[in-house]
Specification:
Blueprint (H helix, E strand, L loop, with lengths): L24 E5 L2 E5 L2 H7 L6 E2 L2 E2 L5 E9 L31 H33 L3 H5 L4 H4 L10 E9 L1 H17 L5 H9 L6 H9 L9 H17 L11 E4 L6 H5 L31 H9 L12 E5 L7 H17 L3 E6 L2 H9 L8 E3 L4 E3 L5 H9 L2 E2 L3
Parallel strand pairs: 5-6, 6-7, 8-9, 8-12
Antiparallel strand pairs: 1-2, 2-9, 3-4, 10-11
Length: 409
């Protein structure tokens, strides 16, 4: 559950995105920069927040949230569902990549899968909420949330004024990159057959490393300011967000989309087969939520920001996350610090909600893996939280090391 009251603040000097209309919320906390110029209007659209102070909108929300995760890449109908270990009563066979004669047909099937599994997801969330209500009432929390005492209801029973359910649509990069590969190589250039790509995915490229190299290196990737690729991700984020509008949770509240993973991109990846972006089976998925697949944003940090800014942050009021990593040497000069300040201003101008930074080098991280006793105090930003590096699981440590590292802006 998340509750509290947040007030907006203006950047130093009274400048900032939205000046004159409303003051966006900006916070810089332990390596994370929060910028919220769009979330305010989103909740106002639903009639959930209309308070103002001196003609400036103020976030004045006191409510209860329930969290769920939705992995958008797993349900791409490009490999048979029985590739996955969790085949069950939720099996929804729409064929495989060889079933579709056009890219448009594949997209239609993907939309049907999103609709089908959104319904299943809401069923699961409803059951979780029912169990919370029966087994995990929270009287103390309810006592400090508006409306619960007046209604005589626990937050788990819908006592709060606002009763949101947050759903994370994650791995935008894997979806965009995979669809870009299929669209370009299979349906447009026709240099790779549907059967060839399907076999490579089923075998995790074990007998076709050349195809994997082609997928990685010969097709543009999300995070490099390539609009047609970015738009593939934008299209399906919009589709998922708009689809949530028809649902209501058990407590009568709406579902809000978010775009962040915490650290679930690693264990989720372990349950997902190879993908058409060249990712091997069981490898980690893209980190953060709106970050590029690690190592594939090759045009620099400003190109990454341009790609990310195309996403509909106004529909992601449950939170978003972009990860970036810089070398310590970048901050060794006044020029480097000035460029970093300009980067933060660009984040605000582009309307990106949340970005967090690691300032590390691979040498230190590798040394910490080898001699953890010497690096107990080394902290890193993971994906929405800060942790001691040596206490993280080895596969998560490796994923952080593999993230793209920038030398400059």
């Amino acid at each position: 559950y998340n509750w509290g009251e947040y007030s907006t603040q203006v950047l130093a000097g009274g400048a900032g995105v939205g000046a004159g209309k409303y003051s966006p919320m900006h916070r810089f906390v332990v390596g994370a920069w929060y910028n919220n110029p769009t979330g305010l209007d989103l909740r106002a659209e639903f009639g959930l927040m209309k308070s103002t102070v001196n003609d400036v909108k103020v976030v004045n929300e006191r409510g209860a949230y329930v969290f769920a995760g939705y992995h958008a890449g797993k349900f791409l109908p490009m490999v048979r569902w029985d590739m996955y270990s969790d085949k069950s009563e939720y099996y929804n066979d729409l064929g495989d990549l060889t079933t579709y004669s056009s890219f448009e047909e594949l997209e239609e099937a993907y939309a049907r899968q999103i609709d089908y599994f959104s319904d299943r997801m809401v069923e699961c969330v409803t059951k979780v909420e029912e169990m919370h209500e029966k087994l995990l009432p929270t009287p103390f929390l309810s006592s400090v949330i508006d409306n619960c005492m007046a209604e005589g209801k626990d937050v788990t029973r819908g006592g709060a004024k606002y009763n949101f359910a947050g759903v994370q649509a994650i791995q935008v990069a894997n979806v965009a990159d995979s669809l870009a590969s299929i669209k370009s190589l299979v349906y447009e250039k026709k240099t790779v057959s549907a059967g060839q790509l399907l076999h490579a995915l089923q075998t995790s490229f074990s007998d076709d490393p050349l195809l994997r190299a082609t997928l990685i290196n010969k097709v543009p990737k999300y995070g490099n300011d390539v609009k047609w690729v970015d738009d593939l991700g934008v299209k399906w984020v919009n589709y998922f967000a708009d689809g949530l509008k028809k649902y209501r949770n058990r407590r009568g509240g709406i579902y809000q989309m978010g775009l962040y993973t915490v650290s679930a991109h690693v264990p989720m990846g372990q349950n997902v087969g190879a993908s058409a972006d060249g990712r091997l089976a069981k490898d980690p998925l893209a980190d953060g939520g709106v970050s590029a697949m690690y190592g594939r944003d090759k045009q620099g940090p400003t190109a990454l920001l341009q790609s990310v800014a195309r996403l509909p942050f106004s529909k992601a009021s449950n939170g978003t996350l972009l990860n970036m990593k810089f070398l310590p040497s970048f901050f060794g000069t006044e020029e480097g610090i000035r460029k970093f300040t300009d980067l933060l201003r660009a984040v605000c101008s582009l309307g990106i909600s949340h970005i967090q930074f690691n300032v590390l080098n691979e040498k230190d991280l590798r040394a910490a893996q080898e001699h953890p006793e010497n690096y107990r105090s080394l902290t890193v930003r993971v994906a929405g939280y800060t942790a001691y590096f040596t206490e993280l699981a080895p596969d998560l440590q490796d994923e952080i090391i593999a993230r793209t590292t920038y030398r400059s802006v």
